[in-house]
Design brief:
The chain is an alpha+beta fold. Helix content is about 45%, strand content about 20%. A five-stranded antiparallel β-sheet has the order 6-3-5-4-7, with helices on both faces.
């Protein structure tokens, strides 16, 4: 269920590193394509690459915490500022995403919690055996993008292509992420439509 330090994870990389272990819970964030200005994100990626190049060995817990504070928390702060058109702020679009998240719950994955914010989504999810996180996310994002774009009468990119994911490391960290999801609307000072927040 949690990160196994005795088992080397499979690691893939695009702009972000993606760690994979079987049977674990992931904390995932995916966001709308216009939720962070491109110049801001480009500068963030350059700083992140420099940091990663300087930390090529296996990271200690303190280094993981440092990386999270320097980079992941910065993204969260930007998202909570509500940049972009915030297509998920209305009930209809929020429900489309919530329903897509719950559709295969108990079959392809176990959904622990989620919150659909105006321009991003946080999820705690545990893929079932034989199902990959990347394919699960692709299915959820593709379906919801198609449905919402149809309602908006538009085409093109809806979600940012790459999602952020982190393997949950302990029961304490799981509790931390659940509380983060629960409190995110209050921190961002937004009122969400009914059903946008889910805690199992």
């Amino acid at each position: 269920m949690f990160f196994n330090p005795w088992q080397s994870p499979e690691i893939s990389r695009r702009h972000l590193p993606h760690w994979h272990q079987d049977g674990v819970i992931y904390f995932v964030t995916f966001r709308l394509a216009d939720s962070i200005p491109k110049h801001q994100l480009r500068a963030w990626r350059e700083r992140r690459l420099l940091w990663d190049d300087a930390h090529t060995d296996t990271l200690t817990e303190d280094q993981i915490k440092e990386r999270d504070e320097l980079f992941n928390q910065q993204i969260d702060r930007w998202l909570d500022q509500g940049a972009g058109q915030c297509h998920l702020s209305g009930a209809r679009h929020s429900i489309i995403v919530s329903n897509a998240l719950r559709y295969f719950d108990g079959e392809r994955y176990t959904l622990n919690a989620h919150v659909v914010m105006p321009n991003h989504v946080h999820v705690l999810i545990q893929p079932a055996e034989g199902h990959e996180l990347s394919k699960i996310l692709h299915s959820i994002k593709s379906f919801s993008a198609h449905e919402i774009n149809k309602e908006l009468n538009k085409k093109g990119e809806f979600w940012q292509d790459e999602s952020y994911d982190r393997i949950v490391r302990s029961p304490a960290e799981l509790s931390h992420f659940r509380e983060y999801i629960r409190r995110n609307p209050a921190v961002a000072k937004v009122t969400l439509p009914e059903g946008a927040l889910y805690l199992r």
